[in-house]
Every structure is written in structure tokens, then in C-alpha cells.
Design a protein that fits this description.
With 231 residues, this protein is α+β, with helices and mostly antiparallel strands. 23% of the residues lie in helices and 34% in strands. The protein has two domains: 91 residues, Pseudouridine synthase (2-Layer Sandwich), CATH 3.30.2350.10; 132 residues, Pseudouridine synthase. The chain is built from seven helices and 14 strands. The strands form three sheets. Strands 1, 2, 3, 4, 7, 10, 11, 12, 13 and 14 form a ten-stranded mixed beta sheet that branches. The protein has a two-stranded antiparallel ribbon with strand order 5-6. The two termini are 15 Å apart.
Length: 231
């Protein structure tokens, strides 16, 4: 296993491909996708460790990010086109914190159209690119914490801890919709996956500059994993 601090820009697949090509590994996977815009902890699995993919993907996640109030985008994040702009000057810190508390607990979340979820074998984002919108089934998620870290309109910094499969950008979008001013995810960084922490990760570019022997010092053997690392 290899802990990567993903930069903004490349897809999770780009990171997998970069590790595979650079070090000539036959099997490389990851344990939980990050959107191209997002940064932070990406757990890479090499060789036999790829069999742990589903186990590690099931672990809880912690994120730090920022939402921008006063606008909505077609992707629910900063990479999309703005489809709505409204005045958000009436929103107070207390109003936002009150709304955020409504999202702690069990939630039935409808996945966004711009996502890798497949319908009839076709990823939703491919349908979205063609201007199509299809009905999506709600998914049960659980938010353990949704805390406001700083408030300076139009942006609000937050920390969110949740179960797997949570679309943080959708929560930000829905918060803005409920406040009546719109919102989108402006920044996102994954800081934890289970007990694994981004502070123990290595920047992607630094990993690519390693020799194969140097890479060994960054690899965590499967035998070194504890049960608490997987949940």
C-alpha cells in the first residue's frame, strides 16, 4: 500500500496510471476515488494489496473544504459552469451552522449526474455530457460531523466526516438550495480514510521522482496493516 497526497488536476485513474507506468507494476489500484479538483489522501494498492480495494473503500472518510455561497454550478463544484447566481449577503454564520446541523446523521442522498455511477453500464457523467438527466436512486449515507471552520462570505470553510460514497459537493449544493442562495463546492481535501491520515502521505510528484529502491521506503506491507486501519 502507498499513501499519496493527490494534487488538484489529475484524476484518480491518472495517479494509478502514473504509478504503474513509472515503476512497471502489473497491478495498481486505489481505495476510493477523488474528483480531479480534490486533493489529499489517495490510498494506492499495489500487487496483491489490490484485493483489499473493496475493504478499504468501505472505510469512513474525513474531508476539509470550502463552499461558495451565492451561486450554483452544473457539476455542483468549481469546475462546472454557473447556472444560477443569487444574493447571499443575508446569510449569517448562525444560519449556515443551523443548516449544516440538519445534515448530520443518516441521509438519503441522490447522487449527482456528474458522477462515475453507472446506469445500464454507462457512467452518469457521460450521459451528463450529452445533456441528459436520468433518475437516480437515493443512497443511504451517514454524516458524523459537519463543522463550520471559518465564515467569510461568500466562502465558508468546513470539516466533514462521513461514510463511504458521500458526495460532499452535493451536500454543499443542497445546503445552498435550502438557504435560498445557492452554493457549490469550491475546494476539497481528503484528510483521512479509516485510520490512515494524509499527514503520512507523500506528494504524487515526489513519488514519481523516486527510484524503485527509494519507493520501498514509502510502501506499507499488507502485514503491517492493523484492523483499525481498515475501518
Amino acid at each position: 500500500m502507498l499513501l499519496i497526497d493527490k494534487p488538484s488536476g489529475p484524476t484518480s485513474h491518472d495517479i494509478v496510471d502514473g504509478i504503474r507506468r513509472t515503476f512497471k507494476f502489473k497491478k495498481v489500484g486505489h481505495a476510493g476515488t477523488l474528483d480531479p479538483m480534490a486533493t489529499g489522501l489517495l490510498v494506492m494498492l499495489i500487487g496483491r494489496a489490490t484485493k483489499l480495494s473493496q475493504v478499504l473503500m468501505g472505510s469512513d472518510k474525513v474531508y476539509e473544504g470550502a463552499m461558495e455561497l451565492g451561486a450554483a454550478t452544473d457539476t455542483q463544484d468549481a469546475e462546472g459552469a454557473r447556472i444560477e447566481e443569487k444574493d447571499c449577503s443575508f446569510v449569517t454564520r448562525e444560519m449556515l451552522e443551523s443548516e449544516m446541523r440538519n445534515w448530520v446523521g443518516d441521509i438519503m442522498q441522490i447522487p449527482p449526474m456528474v458522477s462515475a455511477i453507472k446506469q445500464n453500464g454507462v457512467p452518469l457523467y457521460k450521459l451528463a455530457r450529452k445533456g441528459k438527466t436520468v433518475e437516480r436512486k437515493p443512497r443511504l449515507i451517514h454524516v458524523y460531523e459537519f463543522k463550520l471552520l471559518s465564515f467569510d462570505l461568500p466562502q465558508a470553510q468546513f470539516r466533514l466526516a462521513s461514510t463511504k460514497g458521500t458526495y460532499v459537493r452535493t451536500i454543499c449544493h443542497d445546503v445552498g438550495a435550502n438557504l435560498g442562495c445557492g452554493a457549490f463546492l469550491a475546494q476539497l481535501r481528503r484528510t483521512k480514510s479509516g485510520a490512515l491520515d494524509v499527514k503520512d502521505a507523500t506528494p504524487f510528484e515526489a513519488i514519481l521522482s523516486c527510484t524503485r529502491d527509494e519507493l520501498l521506503s514509502h510502501i506499507i506491507p499488507i502485514s503491517a496493516l492493523r484492523r483499525e486501519d481498515l475501518i
